[in-house]
């Protein structure tokens, strides 16, 4: 498995305590979801654009969910300190970046790491992430920072003269004798414009040095191509080409290796990096490597600023102090819309540094690449800061030839100072447009290209001074007029005289007492034939005061290692305030009213997040106009709770979301899941919070395992169950004789599976687990594992009676939305105020389990998530609070035909609205399973959606294995295809679930064939459907969908040798259809022979066998369907 990557920057693409904490609401747009496993083992589900859908965290874990610099973060409570103290790379919890990198669970199964940010250091298997996180959090993180191996993105006839290259050539300087390293996608070894240009090359990827992308060849030729009309800026320089990028991405580890090779081994004077990762504050691994190699070797790194198009988006490693960061101008001299703007994250340093043309740049095209951008066989037209950067790298080579003794800092400063003016500010263009012609001829220099005053924290009591030193290598003194556009907060002399072969200093003075905000502008020095420009920037912080929080538990002791989300009620920006080990935390924040949201957990010594001793939700308001200290004393909290109608039923767990709206579609707050056994309280302070929402979901029923008259227990989520009945067992500590006993395992966090196996091998009947409970996997534990709160078994009991049931005959799925305050008091539910649902869960025949997920629908989107694993097959009564609910889930062992836990995931097509006192029925996973054209309205990532035309494109979104009212969510084991024909000619093949075909909109007879199989599942092992239809008009096409009604039992079986009444239907996905004919057939030998069927499948087959079905139907318009389902249901 490959490690993380960097993005190639062409138009082909702070700490926790900082503004903009928010969470995106789930989207209803058509999309497909992906899961991302975090380094902590928690899972986050995102949409196809990376938007947050939901968090599936470790039991009991709290999560800070917020948006920072347009990136969505989900940080578990036990990572807040490590991220805030810069011991863990926050990109591990940056959902936006992880999705962009392609680090979703369907694409990689390991999380790639960097060793202290410098070398690839292996990867964490996602299935082991939770266990390894516990070890890292408690030990390894103290040794150094844990970095993600992230990714960067690979981001001339008019442009070369635009930057003054011909003038430099006329002066005799074209880069001859200078080596420029190009770290990119390789180069076309046969391109005539690069013949003899590349002196050395090396591949740091598995792809080979030959450029199969085209980006690297284009960049290389812009620097030093010998193309006559398309000559590069430094047409005399030689190139060292290092391939560090695959496709459009470049792994950090490969980029770092390429940087070291270019600077240390090759000795390149200039290194071009038309690539970049995320926006950064300059402390990331790539930026640190730029600083290290510049100081060590003197190489100048010229780096693309990025193509993110908004402020504070300059990417890594362009943000490094020593890097020369390049913005993109059009050939008309305007800033290109997608060019990333500064300033730098964190300290507001001036970035980018300089601008160059990067829009519609024509340069060398690698063979068989860039077809859509081709100008001719040898050239392509591209846009991006990737194209601007090689202009500057070439200019640096020209200037290095002119001044071979200059350092990287001197080259950078002079290129920045000798620019052509651009009517824009430093965060967009740096100093201005590159002018290498002036750079090689002008004798007066500036010591720096930019002055960054950076972030000046409030209060402001003094002035700050930065100095520009002008040097004159000429024989005569030079008088310079000084002008600036920085405003009255800055003072700059009006002129300066620079002596012959000497220097003169100019002080730029900022008085922050005159006003606050961001200040950016230029200081321009001009004289006879001389123009020098320096960028200046500062952020003068607004008035701020300290907000200090102290947390005290219900036991009167300080509560350490928590966090609070603090929301500015004016701007709705949020910060995450970390609580230190002494139970206090503080932050300096702007004057405003704030909402303080948190949950105080009194944890056991081993940090059992799911079963703390007690938990207190916190929601309060603070007015910050001076330093303020607030004590959050859980002892002042009031009870929050719920009582279920049945005496034998209990709340299993609560999913709570304490939030304040941030902006449309975004929120900030605290989300957590907590065991229903934990006493829950609420604490409010400081006045009303009308904007507050507290959405709480409860899941409950009869406990599957209990201690009669004793403390509460529960099964580990993937535990094997005890046989139903009472089990009176002796208790023995792990390490003693546990044969025939209940083994008590005290733990601070271990993998359950090997412990359960070891206890089974030692003869234990079951395990009593006292301590944090990690994630479960698909397979069951070797023996039953029953979890107890560690404080409940501080003293080992001699004996323990466990009462077990196979499944709760009743369940409660309750949603309690509350606005404006916390819902104090105990809510006592009555059956009359709930909806009653008779629910049936079918299986393929084997006993197993079903994981069910119910979501209330709030404002058209999915709300809290309430999961449950229940034994199947099952029939039971379920109660819901009134409102609209959506259900999905997955069925593993219950649906498998073999020993492996094969999984099918399913979703009901439409949500259901329940009324108080109403009676309803719901059936899940009942045979017959066959192709479905309709999609699930609230989970558009599910399979299905239909077949439709839009212009010349026909798209197919079909769930090959669905049922009455439900469709699949994701792919099962198996394969298949769809093939589209028009007038007998094939238009191609596509994926069985999602396909697209080019089919010009004209009359014709179409045939769509779907063939899908899932041999490892017991039923519907193969489905084949042929549709014939017309398809000239836009919209849904007139395909017929076959429906089946077969009265199978809960194991999806009928009685062998007995007739089976059946009903078949054919409906059209678009409009009403008059069915002209429908003929059905049945087979007892997997389709070898068929018998016609009308309303009854005739007696036949043997117990243990299967019945296959075939339906052929046509409507009055000539649209037809022929569908065969092998092993549609089984016989008992």
From TrEMBL:
Active-site residue list: 184 (charge relay system), 215 (charge relay system), 386 (charge relay system)
Domain of life: Bacteria
Swiss-Prot/TrEMBL keywords: Hydrolase, Protease, Serine protease, Signal
Entry keyword Signal: yes
A Pfam family it matches: Peptidase_S8
A biological-process GO annotation: proteolysis
Ranges for domain Peptidase S8/S53: 175-421
Signal peptide residues on this chain, from the entry's feature table: 1-24
GO molecular function: serine-type endopeptidase activity
Family the UniProt entry places it in: Belongs to the peptidase S8 family.
Name used for this protein in its record: Subtilase family protein
């Amino acid at each position: 498995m490959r490690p993380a990557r960097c993005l190639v920057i062409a138009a082909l693409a702070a700490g926790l305590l900082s503004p903009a904490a928010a969470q995106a609401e789930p989207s209803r747009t058509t999309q497909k979801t992906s899961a991302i496993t975090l380094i902590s083992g928690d899972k986050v589900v995102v949409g196809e654009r990376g938007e947050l859908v939901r968090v599936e965290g470790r039991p009991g874990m709290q999560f800070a969910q917020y948006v920072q610099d347009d990136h969505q973060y989900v940080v578990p409570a036990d990572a807040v300190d490590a991220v805030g103290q810069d011991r863990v790379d926050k990109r591990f919890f940056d959902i936006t970046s992880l999705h962009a990198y392609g680090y979703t669970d369907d694409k990689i199964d390991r999380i790639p790491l960097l060793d202290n940010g410098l070398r690839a250091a292996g990867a964490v298997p996602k299935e082991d992430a939770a266990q390894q996180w516990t070890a890292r959090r408690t030990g390894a993180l103290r040794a150094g920072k844990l970095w993600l191996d992230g990714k960067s993105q690979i981001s001339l006839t008019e442009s070369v003269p635009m930057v003054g290259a011909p003038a430099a050539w006329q002066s005799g300087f074209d880069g001859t004798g200078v080596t420029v390293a190009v770290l990119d996608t390789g180069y076309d070894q046969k391109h005539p414009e690069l013949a003899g240009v590349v002196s050395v090359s090396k591949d740091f990827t598995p792809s080979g040095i030959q450029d199969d992308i085209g980006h690297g060849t284009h960049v290389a030729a812009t620097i030093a191509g010998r193309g006559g009309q398309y000559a590069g800026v430094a047409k005399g320089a030689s190139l060292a080409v290092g391939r560090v990028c695959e496709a459009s991405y470049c792994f950090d580890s490969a980029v770092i290796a390429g940087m070291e090779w270019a600077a240390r081994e090759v000795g390149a004077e200039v290194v071009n990096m038309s690539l970049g990762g995320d926006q950064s504050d300059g402390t990331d691994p790539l930026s640190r490597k730029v600083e290290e190699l510049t100081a060590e070797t003197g190489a100048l790194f010229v780096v693309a600023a990025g193509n993110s198009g908004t402020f504070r988006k300059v990417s890594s490693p362009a943000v490094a102090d020593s890097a020369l960061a390049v913005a993109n101008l059009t050939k008309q001299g305007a800033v290109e819309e997608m060019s990333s703007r500064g300033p730098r994250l964190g300290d507001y340093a001036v970035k980018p540094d300089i601008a160059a043309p990067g829009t519609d740049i024509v340069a060398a095209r690698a063979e068989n690449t860039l077809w859509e951008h081709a100008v001719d066989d040898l050239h392509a037209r591209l846009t991006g800061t990737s194209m601007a950067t090689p202009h500057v790298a070439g200019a640096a080579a020209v200037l290095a030839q002119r001044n071979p003794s200059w350092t990287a800092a001197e080259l950078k400063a002079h290129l920045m100072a000798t620019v052509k003016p651009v009517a824009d500010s430093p965060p967009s263009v740096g100093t201005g447009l590159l002018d290498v012609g002036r750079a090689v001829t002008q004798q007066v220099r500036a010591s720096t290209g930019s002055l960054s005053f950076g972030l000046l924290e409030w209060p402001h009591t003094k002035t700050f001074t930065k100095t520009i030193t002008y040097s004159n290598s000429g024989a005569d003194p030079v008088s310079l007029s000084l002008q600036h556009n920085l405003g009255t907060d800055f003072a700059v002399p009006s002129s300066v005289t620079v002596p012959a072969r000497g220097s003169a200093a100019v002080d730029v003075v900022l008085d922050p007492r005159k006003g606050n905000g961001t200040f950016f502008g230029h200081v321009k020095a001009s004289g006879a034939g001389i123009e020098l420009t320096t960028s200046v920037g500062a952020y003068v912080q607004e008035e701020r005061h300290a907000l200090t929080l102290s947390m005290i538990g219900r036991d009167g002791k300080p509560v350490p290692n928590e966090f609070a989300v603090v929301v500015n009620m004016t701007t709705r920006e949020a910060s995450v305030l970390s609580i230190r080990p002494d139970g206090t935390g503080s932050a300096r924040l702007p004057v405003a009213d704030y909402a303080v949201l948190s949950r105080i957990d009194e944890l056991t010594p081993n940090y059992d997040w799911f079963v703390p001793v007690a938990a207190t939700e916190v929601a309060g308001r603070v007015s910050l106009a001076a330093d303020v200290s607030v004590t959050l004393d859980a002892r002042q909290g009031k009870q929050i709770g719920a009582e279920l109608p049945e005496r034998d039923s209990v709340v299993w767990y609560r999913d709570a979301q304490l939030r304040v709206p941030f902006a449309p579609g975004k929120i900030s707050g605290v989300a957590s899941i907590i065991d229903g056994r934990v006493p829950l309280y609420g604490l409010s302070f400081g006045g009303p919070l009308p904007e507050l929402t507290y959405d709480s979901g409860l899941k409950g029923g009869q406990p599957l395992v209990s201690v009669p008259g004793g403390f509460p227990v529960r099964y580990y989520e993937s535990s094997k169950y005890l046989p139903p009945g009472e089990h009176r067992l002796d208790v023995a500590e792990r390490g003693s004789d546990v044969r025939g006993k209940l083994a008590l395992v005290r733990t601070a966090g271990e993998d359950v599976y090997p412990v359960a196996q070891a206890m089974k091998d030692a003869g234990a009947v079951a395990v009593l687990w006292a301590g944090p409970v990690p994630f479960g996997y698909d397979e069951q534990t070797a023996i039953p594992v029953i979890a107890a709160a560690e404080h409940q078994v501080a003293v080992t009991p001699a004996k323990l009676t466990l009462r077990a049931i196979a499944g709760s005959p009743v369940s409660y799925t309750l949603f309690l939305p509350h606005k404006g305050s916390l819902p104090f008091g105990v809510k006592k539910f009555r059956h009359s105020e709930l909806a009653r649902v008779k629910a049936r869960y079918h299986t393929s025949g084997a006993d197993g389990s079903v994981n069910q997920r119910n979501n209330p629908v709030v404002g058209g989107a999915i709300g809290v998530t309430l999961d449950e694993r229940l034994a199947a097959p099952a029939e039971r009564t379920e109660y819901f609070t009134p409102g609209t609910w959506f259900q999905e889930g997955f069925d593993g062992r219950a649906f498998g035909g073999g020993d492996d836990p094969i999984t099918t995931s399913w979703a009901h097509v439409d949500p259901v609205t329940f009324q108080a006192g109403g009676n309803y029925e719901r059936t899940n996973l009942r045979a017959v399973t066959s192709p479905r054209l309709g999609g699930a309205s609230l989970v558009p990532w599910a399979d299905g959606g239909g077949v439709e035309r839009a212009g010349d494109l026909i798209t197919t979104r079909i769930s090959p294995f669905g049922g009455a009212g439900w469709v699949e969510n994701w792919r099962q084991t198996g394969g298949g295809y769809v093939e589209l024909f028009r007038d007998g000619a094939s238009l191609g093949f596509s994926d069985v679930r999602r396909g697209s075909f080019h089919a010009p909109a004209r009359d014709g007879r179409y045939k769509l064939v779907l063939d899908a199989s899932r041999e490892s599942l017991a039923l519907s092992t193969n489905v084949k459907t042929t549709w014939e239809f017309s398809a000239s008009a836009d919209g849904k096409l007139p395909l017929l969908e076959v429906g089946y009604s077969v009265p199978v039992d809960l194991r999806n079986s009928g009685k062998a040798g007995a007739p089976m009444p059946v009903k078949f239907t054919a409906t059209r996905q678009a409009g009403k259809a008059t069915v002209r004919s429908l003929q059905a057939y049945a087979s007892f030998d997997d389709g070898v022979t068929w018998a016609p069927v009308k309303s009854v499948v005739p007696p036949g087959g043997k117990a243990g066998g299967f019945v296959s079905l075939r339906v052929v139907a046509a409507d009055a318009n000539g649209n037809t369907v022929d569908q065969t389902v092998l092993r549609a249901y089984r016989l008992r």
